[in-house]
Amino acid sequence: MPTMVTALLRARSSAAREGSSSARPHLRAALETFERLGARPWAERARTELRAAGDTSAPAAPDTALAALSPQELQIVRLAAKGLTNREIGAQLFLSPKTVSYHLYRAFPKLNVASRAQLAGLDLS
Predict the structure, then answer these.
(1) What is the tens place of the pLDDT at every residue in 94-117?
(2) Is residue 67 a contact partner of residue 76, using CB atoms and an 8 Å limit?
(3) Range of the domain at 69
(4) Looking at residue 105, which CATH number applies to its domain?
(5) How far is CA 21 from the centre of its chain?
(6) pLDDT tens for residues 47-74?
(7) Is the pTM value of this prediction over 0.70?
(8) DSSP code of 56?
(9) Total domain count for the chain?
């Protein structure tokens, strides 16, 4: 794992010196390794660096993205994808609308979405 962290930092440095396209292969390799090891925070960091480097490849596979969600986040995301409001989700799960909002705020980056409309297009089963 320390080797992959070093690779991530090296890719970052390479991007600063030579341009973002030279860093992409290193970042992709680091991302794949972090995901394989289950190092979610590092995988997310590599994914963020890839996006910053202009990578346009597909986001993480849904299975990987769903695995990154907590059980509560997954339950809330599924209800939001069905079109329920935060208040309706909160009433079903005995949570405040603010708590529902917080869980969605945490889940969106993990799923690589920016809105509820994008949730509807995901396979959340």
Answers:
(1) 999 999 999 999 999 888 888 898
(2) no
(3) 62-120
(4) 1.10.10.10
(5) 22
(6) 778 877 777 664 554 556 788 888 999 9
(7) no
(8) -
(9) 2
